[in-house]
Amino acid sequence: MKPNLTVNIGRLRLKNPVMVASGAFGYAQEFKGLLDLKKLGAIVTKTVTLKPRKGNPSPRTCETPSGLLNSIGLENPGVEAFLKEKLPFLKKLAVPIIMSIASEARTEEFLILARRLDKIREVAALELNISCPNMQGHKLISQDPKATYDLVKAVRKTTGKTIITKLSPNVTDIAKIALAAEKAGSDALSLVNTLTGMSIDVKTKRPRIATVTAGLSGPAIRPVAVRMVWEAYTKVKIPIIGMGGIMNAQDALEFFIAGATAVSLGTANFIEPRSSLQVIAGIKDYLAEHKIRDIGQLKGSLKR
Amino acid sequence: MRLNKTFQFITRIIENRKIKATYWRALLAAPQIASNALPGQFVQIWFGNNQEVFLRRPFSIHRVRGERLEILYQVLGSGTEAFSKKKPGGSLDIIGPLGSGFKLPAATRKIKPVIVAGGMGVAPLVFLAKKLAGIPKRVLIGAKTSGQILCEKEFKELDCDVKIATDDGSRGFKGYVSDLLKKELSDIGYQSVQIYACGPEPLLKKVAAISSKHNIPAQISLEEHMACGIGACLGCAINTHAGFQRVCKEGPVFDAKEIVW
């Protein structure tokens, strides 16, 4: 028996439910030769902004137990350079390209970006990154249900493309934010972005990251992410893409059982570039072994 | 720019032993990398599921011997500690060669290479010295004390004119290797000199200042915390006059005058 792995995210149809997460896979060309990119369910690009961004000072990364703190600060070449220099490689892969976008100036820039990308056929969907914890001095849109609703609603009016809203785990009630995004017309949710964290070198009493606080990823945050996917799943009807410390198929399955329609791998790509393909293979084995015909049957199958 | 292909595979540990103090040498079976690597490039090694050593660790390519790759490392933290526990016959997951190495002179060009190594900075420079075969080279090795001088024999075997500096004066020149560099340059003159340096940041900063003052080209190999090592995460950015650059991709070797200190 060959289980069905195809899933739908908005108007996107993915051949399998395993993608690579924004910021953890560059623009894919960095991984060329290290894995068969064509096998991925989808690729989410590193976040692109309207204008180029220099990013944060170094040190930008620091390892913590089973985790990684990062504060890159959305360094990227800007949308025009992305379209000219990065998209040509991506479109040759014939894998759905989900473009992660963000802005500092909130709504206006998001709308200009969304309008610009609406015309680009090779961009299969937009992921609204309203949850990057490393934009200094900016409160996260995704920490406020009203701001989340307004932004998603405004973008919804400008584009016919599938909209995925990426939410922050740094909130008291994820379901409230998830509902706001759904009500505003988001086609799907990405759960979760990094958890804000901090690490100190006790010898020097200096923070290990130049911006002091940073985003924590990796297995250290997985239980938090699984819990948030489950909390959101019980409230919203739109598909959830689960992420947060997935290293292998077992980890990914937790997210499906909690309510995810698809999963995304981030930090794992840095350690084992082929992790996502190993997860796809592991999911197939699990479904076959448990005689589950369709990955959809696993979604939200938590027993209580 | 890096032109060679990157490989990921399981390498067999042929040898892994302490050479002196906290310094270790590992010999790995890695034909794909050995035939392909350029001096100054590095590899990313994974030590297996370990919550304290979560990421891969970057190591300079110290030497290439036939199909074998030699890594010189200092046991400093949990990653290198994990490395030192690995036994010959065991295996490691390795990715490489990575990054942009030293630019080698065109064969016809007359240059006087001066290689400056501070502490563990010798690691990539032995491979470089080998690639500069046939050109008379001066090598300045700096260490805290005589017991920590690394690779003197290896450089001598490559026909290098080796000078030593120790902070405590227990061997050779008493003082920093950057001061020895100043002295050596005033002896041999500044004409046609090309500096290649690797070591702690304060040393490289001084080398950059010397290079700028006397208008001598200097290639320096930098270090920064890395997550991916392949240019994707932008975690190892350093500030250059051309904006942030990735130590793992545009580097680790940079032209000293590009760096904003």
Produce the secondary structure layout.
The complex is a heterodimer of chains A (304) and B (261).
Chain A: E1 7-9, E2 12-14, E3 18-20, E4 42-44, E5 61-64, E6 67-70, H1 79-92, E7 97-101, H2 107-118, E8 123-129, H3 145-158, E9 162-166, H4 174-183, E10 188-191, E11 195-198, E12 200-201, E13 206-207, E14 213-217, H5 222-233, E15 240-242, H6 249-258, E16 262-265, H7 268-271, H8 275-289
Parallel strand pairs in A: 3-4, 3-16, 4-7, 7-8, 8-9, 9-10, 10-15, 15-16
Antiparallel strand pairs in A: 1-2, 5-6, 6-14, 11-14, 12-13
Helix pairs in contact in A: 2-3, 3-4, 4-5, 5-6, 6-8
Chain B: E1 7-20, E2 23-29, H1 31-34, E3 42-46, E4 57-60, E5 63-65, E6 68-74, H2 78-84, E7 91-98, E8 112-118, H3 122-131, E9 137-143, H4 152-157, E10 160-166, E11 173-174, H5 177-188, E12 193-198, H6 201-213, E13 218-221, E14 237-240, E15 243-246, E16 253-255
Parallel strand pairs in B: 8-9, 8-12, 9-10, 10-11, 12-13
Antiparallel strand pairs in B: 1-2, 1-7, 2-6, 3-4, 3-7, 5-6, 13-16, 14-15
List keywords for this structure.
heterodimer, A: 304 residues, alpha/beta, TIM Barrel, eight-stranded parallel β-barrel, 30% helix, globular, B: 261 residues, Elongation Factor Tu (Ef-tu), domain 3, Rossmann fold, seven-stranded antiparallel sheet, seven-stranded mixed sheet
CATH top level label of the largest domain in chain B: Alpha Beta
CATH level 4 superfamily of chain A: Aldolase class I
Helix share of residues of chain B?
Answer: 10-25%
Overall tally of structural domains of chain A? 1
What is the makeup of the main sheet of chain B? 7 strands, antiparallel
